[in-house]
# Entry
Amino acid sequence: GAVVSQHPSWVICKSGTSVKIECRSLDFQATTMFWYRQFPKQSLMLMATSNEGSKATYEQGVEKDKFLINHASLTLSTLTVTSAHPEDSSFYICSARLGQEPYNEQFFGPGTRLTVL
Amino acid sequence: AQSVTQPDIHITVSEGASLELRCNYSYGATPYLFWYVQSPGQGLQLLLKYFSGDTLVQGIKGFEAEFKRSQSSFNLRKPSVHWSDAAEYFCAVGAGYSTLTFGKGTMLLVSP
# Structure
């Protein structure tokens, strides 16, 4: 099946710094990528939908100035957590949808564990 | 808006026993339904999906699920559980061109 990678797999940073997470579709072109956040023992919460070449669509309650999303190509989307604080510590997962239809499968990356000290 | 309920936070099953994980959804029309599995510290892997046709769908790793419109359910089943099946399982619903809404997940523990 299609493969989605994320880099880094884990990162520890100091409060106030910015962290960039990359999401790549390795063997297919993804018009749409999604960014999720998962707290311990919780479900995945959609943060934003990222479409290649256009601005991301953020879910209600997600600060677009804090979580910057760039989808520069059909195989790469990035999430930058700006001025990170301890409450931003979480597991961030991206997914890429193969095809345009809503029932098309989303392929998930392995996730990035962010710890802000 | 659509929603998903997974009533069981965790379930313990003996190895070799059968398994059923419950999932109920709320949506006005026929949704697209998915089951994913997540191992600790990992992303999600699709087990199976339903969007039309036969209401009993077969997935990978010996899993199957049945869509029951009258009960708004999409329960996941496996006839004989293996220790390697221990993981967290998420039911998800998609509707229209919106993205997926996930349930809170069910942690499966497999006892020897």
Remarks:
- Chain B has a mean pLDDT of 91.
